[in-house]
Amino acid sequence: MSSRYAHIAFSPAAVERQRESGSFTIYGSKLDHPDAGPMEFDSRAQGFVTSVDSFFLSTVTYDGWPYIQHRGGPRGFLHVLGPNRIGFADLPGNQQFVTLGNLETNNRVSLFVVDYPTRTRLKIYGRAHVVDADADPALLQQLLEVPGGIMSAKAQRSIVIDVEAFDWNCARNITPRYDKERMDESLALARRPLQEQIDSLQADVARLAAENEALRARVSNNE
Fold first, then answer.
1. Residue 142 dihedral angles phi and psi, to the nearest 5°
2. How many CB atoms lie within 10 A of CB 171?
3. 18, 38, 117, 216: least buried by Cβ within 10 Å?
4. Cα 161 to chain centroid, rounded
5. Other residues' Cβ atoms within 10 Å of the Cβ of residue 16
6. What is the pLDDT of residue 182?
7. β-strand pairing of 108-115 with 149-150
8. Looking at the DSSP assignment, which residues form a beta bridge with residue 132?
9. Host H or E run for residue 213
10. How many of the other CB atoms lie within 10 Å of CB of 89?
11. What pTM, to 2 d.p., does this model score?
């Protein structure tokens, strides 16, 4: 497994804490391996990021303060553009432009991607680049496309992130939450055996009704 995430995330102070707590063998020991450079998404990571409908994006202000922003859209709004590149359309917001302003002075970002029903989370480090619509209209059009069609929001730019590293986190303390779509899917799965039983019983009723009608006809003809 790549040591890139460890080389980015684990400071000397963090490593010392790991030694004290006994977790160094699991985490900090990865620093014994050379930094292999940017990681590439495997199929699991690709499928995960393209399935979510939101994530949290962290940037840093010009004087070093962290800033976190929620980004959301239809499932599939976060696109995989290459082995270690992702992107999304910058949908209209409150026009504070804090994230965009931060990226002008420091393009380092961190993404926290969570799927609450499955209690799965993925942490991503990367470098973000803002691409105005006029500079690459085809890219923006691509990022506006989602499985259900094309987003109607009038985005003016694309944000492309070159992934440096990623790491799957444990499910601890993630409370499962379900949106209407997931609830409908779960209910449909739960109801499927019952619906199959109902369909079978209805077919039996129809068959018996037909047999009964045929029997009535024969009795009537014999009278």
1. -65, -40
2. 11
3. 216
4. 15
5. 12
6. 67
7. unpaired
8. 157
9. helix 180-222
10. 26
11. 0.78
* Local confidence pLDDT in tens for the 223 residues of the chain: 578 999 999 999 999 999 999 999 998 899 989 998 999 999 999 999 999 999 999 999 999 999 999 999 999 999 999 999 999 999 988 889 999 999 999 999 999 999 888 889 999 999 999 999 999 999 999 999 999 899 988 899 999 999 999 999 877 877 777 677 766 676 777 778 888 888 888 988 888 888 888 788 787 777 6
Residue tagged 């209407």 (tokens): 180
Confidence at residue 198, expressed as pLDDT on a 0 to 100 scale: 86
Tell me the C-alpha distance between 6 and 31, whole Å.
Answer: 6
CA distances from residue 77 to 91, 94, 147, 212 in whole angstroms, order as listed: 10, 19, 9, 57
pLDDT of residue 209: 87
Say how many C-beta atoms besides its own lie within 10 A of residue 125's C-beta: 21
Q: List the structure tokens of 44.
A: 């699991």
Q: How far is CA 31 from CA 5, 79, 81, 169, in A?
A: 9, 31, 29, 18
Task: Give the tokens for residue 3.
Answer: 């040591």
Q: At which residue do the structure tokens 């994006």 appear? A: 57
DSSP string, 140-189: HHHHHEETTEE--S---EEEEEEEEEEEEE--TT------HHHHHHHHHH
Instruction: State the Cα–Cα distance between residues 163 and 82, nearest whole angstrom.
Output: 10
